[in-house]
Amino acid sequence: MRKKKQTGAFTDSFRYALNGIVYALKTERNLRFHVFFAFLVVEVSFFFGLNKVEWAVVLFAIAAVISAELFNTAIENLVDMVSPEYREPAGKVKDIASGAVLFVVFIAVVIGLVIFLPYFIAMGNEGILKKR
Ligand SMILES: Nc1ncnc2c1ncn2[C@@H]1O[C@H](COP(=O)(O)OP(=O)(O)OP(=O)(O)O)[C@@H](O)[C@H]1O
């Protein structure tokens, strides 16, 4: 059996983790889209001046979506390694992993609506009042 590669230092573990994120970003279009959208949401959050609790909820939702995407990518790679040929159970594993991402994204969208909709409505109302 092949010996496990010695890593040791904490900085090595950190580097490997970063490599994983960079690899996933290079290969997964969906992840790139979610990261882009996350930056957009953070900008909008600064613009509206969210309170501490709102910031915490928004950042947690972003973290949940991006980590779900990373886990999904890891599972896809694992499935491709274990079952490069077409097999129904392999497909199911991938579908379930994608389903997990879809679920988290759906909840994140609901959170986004709950937090940002009142700000957008207030902004719209201010605009209407200024025009009068
Ligand atoms: N080895 C396999 N055996 C059976 N079905 C598979 C296999 N690989 C993929 N599939 C089916 O094809 C679908 C798409 O698989 P693919 O590897 O292309 O993922 P993907 O489209 O890159 O996913 P994502 O869009 O989340 O990155 C899977 O959800 C699964 O239903």
UniProtKB/TrEMBL annotation:
Belongs to the bacterial diacylglycerol kinase family. ATP binds at Y16, E28, E76, K94, D95. One of its GO terms (biological process) is phospholipid biosynthetic process. GO terms for molecular function: ATP binding; kinase activity; metal ion binding. It comes from the Bacteria. It is found in: Cell membrane. Pfam families: DAGK_prokar. The chain crosses the membrane at residues 31-49, 55-75, 96-122. Mn(2+), Zn(2+), Cd(2+) and Co(2+) support activity to lesser extents. It is a multi-pass membrane protein. The active site is at E69. Keywords: ATP-binding, Cell membrane, Kinase, Lipid biosynthesis, Lipid metabolism, Magnesium, Membrane, Metal-binding, Nucleotide-binding, Phospholipid biosynthesis, Phospholipid metabolism, Transferase, Transmembrane, Transmembrane helix. The keyword Cell membrane applies. This is Diacylglycerol kinase. GO terms for cellular component: plasma membrane. Its cofactor is Mg(2+). The keyword Cell membrane applies.
